[in-house]
Write a structure and sequence with these properties.
Blueprint: H1 13-20, H2 24-29, E1 39-41, H3 42-49, H4 53-61, E2 68-70, E3 73-77, H5 78-85
Antiparallel strand pairs: 1-3, 2-3
Helix pairs in contact: 3-4
Length: about 90
């Protein structure tokens, strides 16, 4: 997302940053998932997945979203998020 030409015409860098909850400068630098920070908060992960905060914490608690605890904080490794999104058999909603 280094330039607005790389985005679909209906979304701007500012809107993408707002949806994901990161700064505009970070959004401009993060063109792919691999360019996100190494560790994301559960709230940031929820925004990327476009799910609720409680749902993200529930996924961490049941182990479907791998996370690490650092002191009193929970962080989701970028690789865990990438693996979840590229999973060949995601759980389907019926």
């Amino acid at each position: 997302m280094t330039t607005s030409e790389e985005l679909p015409p209906s979304i701007t860098v500012e809107r993408a940053a707002e949806v994901v909850g990161i700064s505009r400068s970070t959004a401009r630098r993060a063109a792919t998932l691999d360019e996100l920070p190494l560790l994301l908060t559960v709230d940031e992960t929820a925004r990327v997945l476009r799910i609720g905060r409680n749902g993200a914490y529930a996924a961490v608690a049941d182990g479907s979203l791998p996370a690490i605890r650092i002191g009193r904080t929970i962080r989701v490794p970028r690789e865990a998020l990438a693996a979840l999104l590229s999973s060949p058999s995601p759980e389907l909603v019926r």
